[in-house]
């Protein structure tokens, strides 16, 4: 096929171009100034070989324009100084020309451009305003001038000192506030809210006092994976804790995890079943972590585990309301440096001139002072939380023989949990073991249940078995699991709940029961383990 018989796309283009009168003229390269400058634009990088040798001829580049300029600028200086630092020590290869959006020098210039901040900088430098000038000032400038003792100029940059803690706050101009907020809040390290690596679970470890949090994405929650991660990632760095408080998951209740705790001499406790409030601190961190992960998925749910380390770092850098300090301050004795602080460094403090021994002593004193203040704040916060809870708490009064319903948390295969009734029963109150622990009978099953997992029955008609059981309770005392009266057989009394049991029902003979120094029934023993 040729131009004599064009077909397809070529024919269509020739048909479109046939309506124009065109003249093709050769244009030499020297006349193509605009595209030629773009293709030959030199990079702003320094030569990688500069500084590696003293003679231009011995450089790897053979003495490029950059090295020649450095030789003209610094050659005389090098000859006059014996010990010279190399002209260039960087070996980072850049692939673009994008610079940092904001820097400390740039922000100082922007402060001068801002009308209110520039006036404030002049006023605190010694040129105090008169009444007429102050009357014409903006409300923001008047507010800053009223608290002028908090502002200070450091390296031609305006800072504000916090009135309560020793912290310098950078005064940000209005034009840069949106960018600063994005750098401080719209990145994963800010922590505002199945993967390719196979992770499906998160192991969260929280220190009860400092609120230090660690989050480890895991591919599974088996006992082996959980125990190895806790020992390798947490215990090896922070040491073995005195006590571990976990839920009753199979990975924590396994023989392997229990053996690991025993070998490391760690006291292990567990929460009460179906009561997340017994370990509310971790549950609250779980909700915060989940909300933050949702904010950074961007439709890629298979990469949620990549955000978890950054969110955990943000939680450690956030001030905890209960302690008044960040977990970093209480655990490390200092605040970690964030990317935003690298862009806007804080002026050096007087502590940087201390010797090593003085610095260690000062750091130890700061940590002790922070821990003392945190303990005082925790005590006040716990008292306030208890007062708030007691204000909204309802006082439950149950009596023996009451008809109650029991909260049903069990999940049945093939049944939808959202459509099933949240209560089961009818149940009968047999005894008040403690003011909050109640013994309830549901048909032939007897169990000890917390008071907030039952509610009074308001049914007008009750089943026959319930009426008969209540009649037996009213007619006389019933004993043991069998709920039968005293028939003259040998009985043993529990030292905790003071309930009497038939020896035949609890597997004891008369002689062995008489030799026992004390007897604890199975219900009281299970309740004691749950409390621990």
Automatic annotation (TrEMBL):
The cross-references to Pfam families, in alphabetical order and at most eight, read: PHD, rve
Q: Which residues form the Integrase catalytic domain?
A: 169-335
Listed InterPro entries? Integrase_cat-core, Retrovirus_Pol_polyprotein, RNaseH-like_sf, RNaseH_sf, Zinc_finger_PHD-type_CS, Znf_FYVE_PHD, Znf_PHD, Znf_PHD-finger
Which keywords does this Swiss-Prot/TrEMBL entry list? Metal-binding, Zinc, Zinc-finger
Give the GO molecular function terms.
Answer: nucleic acid binding; zinc ion binding
Q: Name the domain of life this protein comes from.
A: Eukaryota
Keyword Zinc-finger: yes or no?
Answer: yes
Q: Spell out the protein name for this chain.
A: Pol polyprotein
Q: Native species of this protein?
A: Plakobranchus ocellatus
């Amino acid at each position: 096929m040729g131009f004599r018989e064009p077909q397809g796309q070529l024919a269509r283009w020739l048909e479109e171009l046939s309506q124009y009168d065109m003249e093709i003229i050769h244009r030499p390269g020297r006349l193509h100034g605009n595209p030629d400058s773009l293709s030959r634009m030199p990079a702003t990088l320094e030569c990688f070989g500069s500084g590696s040798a003293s003679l231009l001829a011995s450089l790897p580049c053979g003495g490029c324009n950059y090295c020649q300029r450095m030789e003209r600028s610094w050659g005389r200086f090098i000859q006059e100084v014996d010990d010279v630092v190399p002209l260039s020590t960087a070996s980072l290869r850049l692939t673009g020309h994008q610079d940092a959006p904001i820097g400390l020098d740039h922000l100082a210039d922007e402060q001068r451009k801002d009308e209110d901040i520039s006036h404030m900088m002049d006023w605190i430098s010694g040129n105090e305003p008169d009444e007429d000038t102050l009357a014409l000032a903006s409300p923001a400038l008047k507010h800053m001038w009223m608290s002028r003792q908090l502002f200070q100029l450091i390296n031609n940059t305006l800072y504000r000192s916090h009135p309560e803690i020793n912290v310098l706050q950078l005064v940000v101009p209005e034009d840069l506030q949106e960018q600063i907020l994005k750098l401080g809040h719209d990145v994963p390290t800010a922590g505002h809210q199945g993967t390719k690596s196979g992770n499906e679970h998160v192991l969260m470890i929280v220190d009860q006092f400092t609120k230090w949090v660690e989050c480890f994405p895991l591919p599974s929650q088996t006992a082996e994976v959980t125990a190895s991660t806790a020992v390798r990632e947490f215990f090896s760095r922070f040491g073995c804790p005195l006590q571990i408080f976990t839920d009753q998951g199979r990975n924590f209740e396994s023989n392997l995890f229990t053996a690991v705790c025993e070998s490391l001499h760690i006291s292990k406790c567990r929460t009460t079943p179906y009561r997340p409030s017994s370990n509310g601190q971790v549950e609250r961190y779980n909700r915060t972590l989940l909300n933050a992960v949702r904010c950074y998925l961007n439709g890629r749910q298979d990469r949620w585990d990549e955000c978890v380390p950054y969110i955990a770092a943000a939680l450690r850098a956030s001030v905890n309301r209960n302690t008044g300090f960040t977990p970093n301050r209480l655990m490390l004795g200092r605040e970690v440096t964030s990317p935003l602080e690298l862009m806007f460094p804080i002026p050096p403090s007087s502590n940087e001139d201390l010797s090593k021994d003085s610095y260690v002593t000062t750091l130890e004193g700061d940590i002790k002072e922070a821990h003392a203040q945190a303990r005082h704040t925790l005590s006040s916060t716990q008292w306030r939380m208890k007062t708030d809870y007691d204000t909204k708490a309802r006082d439950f009064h149950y009596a023996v023989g009451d008809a109650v319903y029991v909260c049903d948390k069990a999940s049945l295969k093939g049944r939808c949990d959202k459509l099933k009734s949240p209560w089961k029963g009818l149940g009968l109150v047999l005894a008040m073991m403690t003011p909050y622990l109640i013994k309830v009978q549901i048909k032939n099953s007897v169990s000890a249940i917390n008071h907030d997992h039952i509610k009074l029955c308001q049914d007008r008609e009750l089943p026959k078995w319930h009426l008969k059981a209540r009649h037996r309770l009213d007619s006389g005392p019933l004993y043991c699991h069998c709920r039968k009266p005293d028939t003259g057989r040998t009985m043993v009394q529990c030292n905790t709940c003071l309930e009497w049991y038939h020896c035949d029902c609890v597997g004891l003979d008369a002689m062995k029961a008489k030799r026992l120094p004390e007897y604890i029934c199975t219900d009281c023993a299970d309740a004691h383990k749950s409390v621990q």
